[in-house]
Write a sequence for this structure.
């Protein structure tokens, strides 16, 4: 069984040195050692952010390839039930918790599997805590800067 659910905000800290920290490095090692599970959209989100960073000159195309190869080596499995739950459980959770359906997908997966959630997204972390899901990194709100959803996904 996979050890955690990871969202793209955490995986991106492994792609950009200026977003890395000792704690996110430790989370990388945890995923490497115990595995993780993600919804199918995770690959699209991660690829999109890296592509946008490439377009802005933050990284090169070869950097994108290297980072994706590194992440592909991790024992990360894709949840096969997410799509079937999109219009019911995920939509309901998004509405109830005030999240996008994208973020609610990670939350629904963590709730259903009873796994900790790795995220740096404030709104998602707060919703997970309300549902008694362990959130890592376990930083206070002050240490998790709030960023607009659009900007976070495109930079």
């Amino acid at each position: 069984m996979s050890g955690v659910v990871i969202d793209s905000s955490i995986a991106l800290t492994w792609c950009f040195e200026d977003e890395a920290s000792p704690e996110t490095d430790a989370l990388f090692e945890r995923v490497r050692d115990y595995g993780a599970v993600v919804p199918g959209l995770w690959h699209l989100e991660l690829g999109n952010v890296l592509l946008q960073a490439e377009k802005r000159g933050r990284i090169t195309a070869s950097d994108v390839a290297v980072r994706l190869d590194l992440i592909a080596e991790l024992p990360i499995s894709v949840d096969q039930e997410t799509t079937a739950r999109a219009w019911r459980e995920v939509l309901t959770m998004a509405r109830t918790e005030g999240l996008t359906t994208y973020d609610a997908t990670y939350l629904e997966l963590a709730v259903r599997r009873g796994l900790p959630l790795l995220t740096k997204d404030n709104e998602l972390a707060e919703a997970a805590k309300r549902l008694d899901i362990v959130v890592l990194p376990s930083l206070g709100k002050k240490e998790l800067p709030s960023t607009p959803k659009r900007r976070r996904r495109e930079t």
